[in-house]
Specification:
The complex is a heterodimer.
Chain A lengths: L1 H53 L11 H8 L4 E2 L2 E2 L6 E7 L4 H9 L1 H9 L4 E7 L7 H12 L4 H10 L11 H11 L4 H8 L2 H16 L7 E5 L7 E4 L4 H11 L1
Parallel strand pairs in A: 3-4
Antiparallel strand pairs in A: 1-2, 2-4, 3-5, 5-6
Helix pairs in contact in A: 2-6, 4-10, 5-6, 5-8, 5-9, 6-7
Chain B lengths: L5 H27 L12 H7 L4 E2 L2 E2 H17 L3 H29 L4 H24 L5
Antiparallel strand pairs in B: 1-2
Helix pairs in contact in B: 1-3, 1-5, 3-4, 4-5
The chains are: A alpha+beta, B mainly alpha.
Chain lengths: ~250, ~140
Amino acid sequence: MSGKGSREARHDERLRAESESEQGERRRRLLQIGSAAAFLVVAAVLVLVVISANKTSGGDTNLEDVGLVANQLKGAPQNDLVLGEPSARVTLYEFGDLKCPVCKGFSEEIVPSVIDSKVRDGEAKIEFKNFTIIDEESTPAGAAAIAAGMQGRGWSFIELFYRNQGPETSSYVTDAFLTEIARGAGVPDIARWNKERKSPKTVAEVESTTHEAEKLGFTGTPSFAVEGPGTKGLETLGTPGSSEAIEEAIAAAG
Amino acid sequence: MRLPAEGTLRVIATFVAAFGIGVATYITIADSGGGSPVCIAGGGGCETVANSTYSHLLGVNIAVFGIVGYVLLLAASLLRGDVARMVGFGVSLVGFGYSVYLTYLELFKIEAICQWCIASAVLMTILFGLNAIRMVGYVGKPA
C-alpha cells in the first residue's frame, strides 16, 4: 500500500514538474514575443521622429509656423478675407500677391504689429485683396485664400501661405501644397474649399481685385489703402515703410 | 519585489481605459463639428494642434484611433488569460509609442500643446505601465 502510494506521489510530482516546465516554456515564449513587439514599436517611433525631423518647409507636407500663425491671429475675428471686428470704423486694405516675397516680409515684420495695436482692440479691420502680379500661380493661390475665407479661415490661410512660401520663380503652388496650407489653416470642409476655390466666380474675384488695384494706380505689392470716417473715400498709402506709418494712417482715418 | 495582484492591475486599467474613452470621444466630437477641443486652462494650443496636418491620419481624426485603442484596452482589462494580457500589452505599447511621437510633434513641429492630447498621453502611459507589469508578471501563468 505504501509502495503504491509512493509511486503515485512520484507520478504526480513528475506531472507537476512537466506542467511547470511547459508553463515556464510558454511564459518564456510569450515574453520573447512581448520583447520583440516592444523593440519594433521603439524602432517605429524612432523612424517616425527621424522622418518628421528631416522634412523641409515650403511646398512640403510639413508646414512651418502653424502655431505661430494661430497665436498671431488669436482673438481677431475672420470673415471672408477680412481680419477684425466687422464694425471697426476704419478699414485697411492690403493688396497683395501670395507669391510675392515682399508681401511675406510685410506679413512677418509689419502686419503683426498693426494687428496687435489696431485690429485686436476693434479700432480697425484689415481686408486682404488679391493683386496678382508674380505669375500664373498667383491666381489659384489667391482663389484658394478666398475659398478659405468663405469658411472663416482666410487670414489663417494667407499668413500660413506666406510662412511656407517657396522661391518666387519656382512652381510650388500645387493642389497638394494648397491643401496642406488649407488643412494647416484649419479650413474645416476641405471638399467644399476645393470646389469653391476652383469655381469661376472665385477666380473672377481675384481678377476683379487685381483690376481694382490697377485702377487705384498701384504697381507693386503689397500696396495699402485706408478708409474711415476721417478719409474722403478710399485713400491710397502705397507701400508704407513701417508699421508706424500704417498705424498713423489708421489713426488719422478714425 | 512583490508585484501587485493581477486583479488590482486589471481594476485600475479598467478605470483608466474608461477615462481614456471619454477623453478621445470628446476630442472626436469637438473635431467633427468643425471646431476643436477647448483648452480648459486657456491658450490656443488645442485649436492649433487640432488644425494641424498631424491631427488626421488617412483622413481620419487620430482621436478615433484613440477610441478604438482604449476600447480594446478596456476589453483586455475586463478579460482573463494570456490572450487578454498580450492584447493589453500590445495595444498599450503601440498607443504609448504613438503618444510619444505625437508629444514630440506638439513640442517640436506644431509648437503648441493641447491639454487633451497630453491627458490622453498620460492615460496611455499609465495603461502601458499597468499592462507591462501584468504581462511580465503574469503571462504564461494560470488566470
